[in-house]
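So, can you check this one?
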Amino acid sequence: MPDHSLFRLRVLPWYIALAISGSYSSAWADDDIQFDSRFLELKGDTKIDLKRFSSQGYVEPGKYNLTVQVNKQPLPDDHDIFWYASEKEAGKTYACLTPALLAQFGLKEDIAKSLQWSRNGECLAPGQLEGIDIKADLSQSALLISLPQAYLEYSDIDWDPPSRWDDGIPGLIADYSINAQTRHDEQSGDDSNDITGNGTVGANLGPWRLRADWQTDYQHTRSGDDDEDSDGNSTQRNWEWSRYYAWRALPSLKAKLALGEDYLNSDIFDGFNYVGGSVSTDDQMLPPNLRGYAPDISGVAHTTAKVTVSQMGRVIYETQVPAGPFRIQDLGDSVSGTLHVRIEEQNGQVQEYDISTASMPFLTRQGQVRYKVMMGRPQEWGHNIAGGFFSGGEASWGIANGWSLYGGALADENYQSAAIGVGRDLSILGAMAFDVTHSHVRLDENTAYNNRTLDGNSFRVSYAKDFDELDSRVTFAGYRFSEKNFMTMSEYLDAKDADMVRSGNDKEMYTVTYNQNFRDAAVSVYLNYTHRTYWDRPEQTNYNVMMSHYFNMGSIRNMSVSLTGYRYEYDKSTDKGMYLSLSMPWGDSSTVSYNGNYGSGSDSSQVGYFSRIDDASHYQINVGTSENHGSVDGYYSRDGSLAKVDLSANYHEGEYQSAGISLQGGATLTAHGGALHRTQNMGGTRLLIDADGVSGVPVEGNGSPVYTNMFGKAVVADVNNYYRNQAYIDLTKLPENAEATQSVVQATLTEGAIGYRKFAVISGQKAMAVLRLSDGSHPPFGAEVKNSDEQQVGLVDDDGNVYLAGVKPGERMTVSWNGEAHCDIALPDPLPADLFNGLLLPCQTKGAVAPATSPDVKPVIQEQTQRVTPTEPPTSISVNQ
């Protein structure tokens, strides 16, 4: 068939939709709207089936599978919607909104309780909610519902109410992060190999998440000594399960129940490891603009380096980074407290420092209460109990508009602390909070304090503000002063040990994180600063400040220059310096740059080339000098479907050669299938995609696309908790013999859930066919052809022609019109070589058709090759009333 006839079949639904839209606009108030089929250029005696397209207000009674949109936001799944004839108005029908469907609207509790139901409680009685507007758009298979915002709990474009949260499906997970490095020292001849890893395994059972964290380290060093005796080699191995825990969401309380080994994440008290349980308000369940602060970790790597972030000895993040400044911003807002950062350079240099992840001011909306309750026993590394039973809690109460009162207590037999504070939303001036914490500690004669009782206070003020008019943000600014006798729980646990003396003994701490953009000058500034003083040791100052400027030079556009100053102190060692970077575009996706690192250690200068290969991969090459020695560094990164892979190679003249690889990924297995996938958030939320068994389908959802495996499954990992997430098929990259009839899905998942969504993907060849009924006529215009999975694979035109997708040898399909299945067709087996030459398919009474074979059909096809007289599609469509 000529190409323009194929085009006419493809755009048939658009003709119909466009004609209907014309009738809607000109006769919006009419009850009886007729669609004039003459404007589709049909033959005079052409049969036509347009009932499901033709009426704006009236919908035939029956069942319709539709996408439901509430205030233009689609609900996660399609729904079977029944239309019933109105008992009060003749000739009218109404949509049956079931209690289960209404529960997903997010109605206020008092509104939901007042609703009346009809048809034995199956349907919402019409006419109850003033201002509600319900429309059916059958051409788009959608039910459009408009609700006044006054009826809804809360409105946010990317947030769904608890009624739409999905606990996912049962399944098993195994996530990992593996880093391997090898290094040859040219001066000593020593070779070293280092493999480190951490990860999470677990299971999901309904709303419960069961997890276990592990970490491992393997180090092997071979001496360059020619004797090669056993003393010249050393090997160290370590594997440990660092944490066992479980949790589940409590949606009705906007809270989370956690059991097992945990770290005390508190907005008031300093954290420590413990084993026990807790119930806490989960900020992730709040709308996005009411959620808390996520930690931001920044630093500078002198060479390609491994960055490890840990908390009380437990590794929570590990990755490789190329030389230069880096920022880690994907830890999530559930991480708080003091984090330890370790940067291991390829040249053997190690930087270490602590980051205090300060909390936003503890504010709560008027009339609401946010709280945390915990109990258990303190725990040391290695699952060892470190103290007696303790309990504690904290809460914030929105006492008035803009004002919050908060406080808490934490105690065991010999340690008690209590805090009270007040927070104030200052509107255009930001938000501020002030609190004071008092501690009371009893220590016996077996400690270094010789049976003493210590009382002390700690005072804190914190501030946060987005200055939209200045395009700047104070993410957090805080000051804390602690008296000499004040103790946190972790300090008390150290002090009560007879073999230890209290460590730390904080006095003052200043901290600020600040972003500023000067748009007119094309300059941006970022600052992360912490200054700490102690009662028993020297002060420490850590900071990272970066200034960037973007500019044009002649015909070269989008050049940039950035200057980073940094200083990190830890355990009496200091690393400080300055990093200069100048870059300019080179082609569409490449950049050339100059990088200079000056300060502690050796100064270095490098010329670099960066290129983005595609959306998922890039590489970087640097050539330069360090201490008058030449160096070459290479770095490659790819976000693959199975794992995230980072590769590095380094050569420094006369010093060392090294190479490294980093893998981050996981495996998810459920009763619906499973897949290997990349991930960064160990044990986190993910979405299992089912493409109806079709492999190689590109799915976009979070970053670069992932492709379905041989079983038609893929996993989109690291999706946001309690946040409307979308995944969609990239139709431009579909395999040749695949077609998607549904290409977008969405899910709002609880923390740690394994969501499951299925795309309607048709696999098989494409073909042009002619359908004939037993009397020689053809099915009416607009009749549907569906496969055995009830997927629509074609629409019949005015000559009985149909463009079929997903054609398979011997497959049976059903042809339907007027809402009923009338006859069946069968594809030949094997299929003919040319499927676009017009395949004649008899449409026989449903159930009576026998599978066709290619030899029997081919002669009939040849006789029918002259039957089609293509016509051009109309250039315009109008509606005649």
